[in-house]
Amino acid sequence: MASIKDIAKECGVSVATVSKALNDQDDISQSTKEKVRKAAAKLGYTANVAARALKTNRTYNLGILFADERAGFTHEYFSMILESFQKEAEKHGYDITFINHAIAGVKTTYLKHVEYRNLDGVCIMTADYEDPEIRELANSDIPVVAIDYVLDGCAAVLSDNSQGLGEIVRYAYRMGHRNIAFIHGDETYVTRERITSFRSACAQLGLHIPSCNIVKGSYHDIKDCAEKTEKLLDLQDRPTLIIFPDDYSYIGGMETIALRGLNIPEDVSAVGYDGINMAKIMNLTTYEQNTAELGQLAARKLLQMINEPQLPPERVIVYGKLLEGKTVKKIG
Asked: FRET label pair with 84: which of 124, 140, 205, 301, CA 20 to 30 Å apart?
């Protein structure tokens, strides 16, 4: 088996340089890191994780907390964030473990599970943030980063939900729409951000949106979205454009509109949210979230908290972009 000394000889650098490069330390140039990694791959070098753990007092294992009873990782948005997070973690020599409520079949708390696994840090991808167990974990000494939620004392990587909804409303306005409806998701931090942005953007444009045009729905729920779309279509003053909670839920709205004998976008325009591959295939106008950067930054921020515990937790916003498909008609 190849050793660090073999890699150093292959690259013509010191053993210390190889060690720093493999651990992605900042005082080594990117070109040297790439050179060392290529040599390590060529020579078949595998780090001795057990020895490294003893030396650093770490397990090189990160926890993932994902509590979603509906779509789970079958939903492309979350699976893409996870994939990006995992790639970044593995690049730095870390594995990931999913956190749950049980140890060997015995019910426990999230924090107890983290301590049992001796995890170096935790990424909360989605959860009930009012759950006392989440608060217990966030208030512990374990480094924690949350995605799309602000927890006191924790790092956060946030989607630009406020800017995203505002951009959709402004786009709809430019396309001539004045009677806009919004089906939003469940009561969450993300939803509150989006509703506030929707109302604010409409007010800035001088649009009076009746309360019946803002409907509570559910994320990633086709059936629920179909029912909410039906209610909007029943309104005496039917909206000319509907903003759906996410691209997947849009399928329910699309089916309801078709069953009414209406067409998209000729009779009703539609906009989704997330920018998953399905939306692009269907030419759905949507707001694409940067899932690759969300996952990558979450991993980087968590590792930064592990490596530099004295630094204050940082909050970072990741910006997306509007994708103009063929589901919004220009009117007026």
From this structure: 140
